[in-house]
Amino acid sequence: MPRIAYVNGRYIRHAQAAVHIEDRGYQFADGVYEVCEVARGYIVDMTRHLDRLNRSLSELQIAWPMTRSALQLVMREVVRRNRVVNGLVYLQVTRGVAPRDHAFPAPGVKPALVVTAKRSDPAAAAKKAETGLAVITVPENRWDRVDIKTVGLLPNVLARQQARSVGAQEAWFVDPDGTVKEGASTNVWIVTRDSRLVTRPADHGILRGITRATVIDVAAKLGLEVEERAFTVAEAKQAREAFITAATMVVMPVVTIDGTPVANGHPGSVALSLRHAFFDIAEKIKA
Predict the structure, then answer these.
(1) Is 286 a catalytic residue?
(2) Closest of 199, 160, 20 to residue 94, by C-alpha
């Protein structure tokens, strides 16, 4: 069955889907995006994702491409047409198509919208969680507004490729003072020796991850204490556990940092318990 994408009002075969060469997302990275997990036939945390989309659009002064309720219907329809039971649904909104000029286009230019969906294998993800991931650290070199989920991700791309080149799966951005910011596409957590969960505050300098927010809810349900504060790479290497969160992987244990094993070098029980409880506690909207 061919994949189907939604592009500016049309459902079209993924292989034939295209945007205009003067789309500002292509020329200026002048756009934002969201990625929602699809699990067991449900879109996970859609409300929080669309709330964050609203914030990103507002920060960049981009109008909604359609009403929120209409966008929900499009997302569900794209998932349905692609028969995705487990996977991801991706949406991207740009400022639209206009003659190339750094300044905003004239009023009346309609924002552009693309929605796609793809399947994933939950068994493969579960197997990866059983072994955990390796991460490296890289100096922070991004712009100051990483709290906006824009499509301008070149530093993240280069960081992830640097990790891949040494056999790791993720890169953590680190400030000059040695404190961890976030991953190339994930939020970062550690578990202290006295079993407290620690993650950097999301008020500035990192993206307010939706999975991160739901994991805080999950931790509360499991009776785990969450402390939002900065922590150093050295503290992470000495932690009881480390893990990362994102819609693309939910909760994924980290077993080495820059080649140093975290604890015994195996996934920890806290991260795995959060992962196992996540679906039951997260918001679920039938696709």
Answers:
(1) no
(2) 20
Amino acid at 144: D
Residue 275 φ/ψ region, left for φ over 0, alpha for ψ in the -120 to 50 degree band, beta for the rest: alpha
CA 206, 170, 249, 30 torsion-angle sign: positive
State pLDDT tens for residues 216-270: 999 999 999 999 999 999 999 999 999 999 999 999 999 999 999 999 999 999 9
Residue 120 identity (one-letter amino acid): S
Q: How far apart are CA 91 and CA 80, in angstroms?
A: 15
Looking from the CA of 241 toward its CB, the CA atoms found within 13 Å total 23
Bridge partners (DSSP) of residue 97 are: 23
The structure's pTM equals 0.97
The alpha-carbon radius of gyration of the chain (Å, integer) is 19
Q: Which of 110, 127, 149, 237 is catalytic?
A: 149
How many DSSP H helices and E strands does the chain contain?
A: 8, 16
